[in-house]
Design goal:
The structure holds 2 protein chains of 2 kinds. By secondary structure, chain A is mainly α. Chain A folds into 3 domains: 1-213, no CATH class; 238-477, no CATH class; 492-579. Chain A has helices spanning 8-17, 26-44, 68-87, 94-112, 116-135, 140-171, 184-196, 205-209, 215-236, 241-260, 264-285, 288-319, 330-333, 335-348, 355-369, 373-399, 413-431, 433-437, 451-470, 472-475, 487-490, 492-559, 564-585, and strands at residues 49-56, 59-66, 481-482. A two-stranded antiparallel sheet of chain A has the order 1-2. Chain A is elongated. Chain A starts with 7 loop residues before the first helix and ends with a helix. By secondary structure, chain B is an all-alpha fold. Chain B has one domain. In chain B, 64% of the residues lie in helices and 2% in strands. Chain B is built from 3 helices and 1 strand; from the N terminus they run H-H-H-E. Chain B is flat and about 60 Å long. The N and C termini of chain B lie far apart (45 Å). Classes of the chains: A mainly alpha, B mainly alpha. At the A-B interface, helix 10, helix 14, helix 16, helix 19 and strand 3 of A face helix 2, helix 3 and strand 1 of B.
Amino acid sequence: MTGSFIHPGLIMIIGAVLIPVIPKGTAKKAYILLLPLLAFISILSMTEGTYWATEFLGAEIVMGRVDKLSILFGYIFTLAAFASFLFGIHVKEDGHHIAAMIYPGAAIGSVFAGDYLTLLVFWEFMAFSSVFLILYGKNAKASAAAYRYVLVHAFSGIVLMAGIIIHVTNTGSFAFNHVGVLDLASSLILIGFIINAAVPPLSAWLPDAYPEASVTGAVFLSAFTTKTAVYVLARGFPGTEILIYLGAIMAVYGVIYAVLENNMRRLLAYHIVSQVGFMVCAIGIGTQMAINGATAHAFAHILYKGLLFMAAGSIIYMTGKRKLSEMGGLYKTMPLTFIFFTIGAFAIAAVPLTSGFISKSISLSAAGASHNTFAWLMLTLASTGTFLSIALKIGYYAFFGKDKGLPAKDPPLNMLLGMAIPAFFCVFMGFYPQYLYRLLPFDVPYYPYTLDHVVWSAELLLLTALGFWAFITIAKPKPYISVDTDWFYRLGGRVFLCFAHRVVLAIDEVVTNLWKTVFLKLLKNIANVSWGLDVSIVDGAVNGVANFVIGLGKRMRRLQTGHLQHYAIATLVGIVILLNLIYFLR
Amino acid sequence: MNLENWFGDPKKIRIYKYIFVIAVIFFIAVDIIFVDPHHVYFPWDNYPGFNAIFGLVGSSVVIIISKLVISKFVSKKENYYDR
């Protein structure tokens, strides 16, 4: 317990409350940018250890577990928050800023939580602050999506809580550490985590909600919820085999949907699913190298995905268009946005000399080193699909393609600066990977720039471009939407009502008619018959039994004479009969 | 900033295509001649050009599966949920 610890998450959460009182204008903007900066400085000055540990209602509460893993996520969360606030500093509504401040604050709180109770509290804070960022999309679709979003996250919270309660009852400890075996409690906790990580089939909330959020809100959303889930999985469930397969499937699943998608931000949302799949898969592999890969990838991913959402948001902000089929030729009018987008797109596609190359490679090498053919093939297929659907598809159809002549220009300065920060890091980390590698939780040396590695990546990407070229007419975005597993809770209710209306009502009618015409008559007849039976047989039987008992009583009474000699004779006769019986039976 | 000098001129686009083809040939040649893999994790690590073929086939398969097969089941009109 050495060194000072000021909780960086609470700096942002408590600081958020004061946002409305700060005078409008420069002071407020400065204050908003200062909070994530203060949180960053607080993390910078931390030393590893356990802080803010207290007893609460008989449970050991640890609000500050500081080690390499939590520090790495703390750095990237505060950095992403700062860049996102710079991008969205022009937003007028205080409520938007407050929600956007509490949300990363809660994510940071979850990361530094050392026990389940603290984790759960921040987990719920995260869900219920982020929903406002969707509501600020300010239309009926956004409200409906926000409602579904909060339902899914309430469900994930309840599942997590159920798991925690069973765990605490069994073990008596709130401590959140590596979970060894999968029993009921840890399985429920795992399900709670993977809903937030958007693992299919529990992933549809993400591409449903994120594209409806406000322009800035989507940038925030892309960073925190899923990556907090990656953190808790890396902390609690490394080496859980099922995660290898879920992650590998998830990586390709996201890509397949992304290739279909026409809404630009929904396409990017599907790529969150795909990219988190890489991380989940690496966590499932669970070697030190793989965990390093997952955390490095999370770090790099937050930056380039935020950048891509900023670029997409800039297009929406300046043109009002969301669909790729309505865009084209934007590189002429929005050249800086195009350049920033290209940096982000190359980074997510793991082009050499970008952050994606030096981070994703670790996971792929870890899959190779564990000789997991399935994982390697799926992740490499997802890599080609990533380059295909982001760099090539969005790049071509939004910025080139048929010029739709949209009146547009590059967004305001603050948005450009917001994009410049992650763009800088995407390139910087590509050139100097050691700055990221130094932060990783395990000390495993890794060299991304070997000849075979660079040449193989270049081949993969170049020939992917050729494949896109060959099938460009098929790959063209079309104005359709794709149904996902959210169908079940979006239309499932409607189908149920339809079922109730058509089928249940019809059955009800048949049953009613049958009742009136057949059963009622039958019942009447049965009643008549039973009445007759009652009179003649049941009553008769009762009367008969009564008469018999009376007669028996009369006869019995005659036996009772009251004379002593009669009783003595009867006793004597009885004894003689008894003796004879005994004699004969001997 | 004007990028039209870079991407608006058909002559330059043709030059980019040549650069692309040269790059493909270059990297496959380097793979065949110089690459001696550090670790052979999978059997295909011994075949130069495997990643090139994987890129071409993989991207084609992703497009075809997604756009021609999966879309049959999941693609709906944009007002599907609003009816």
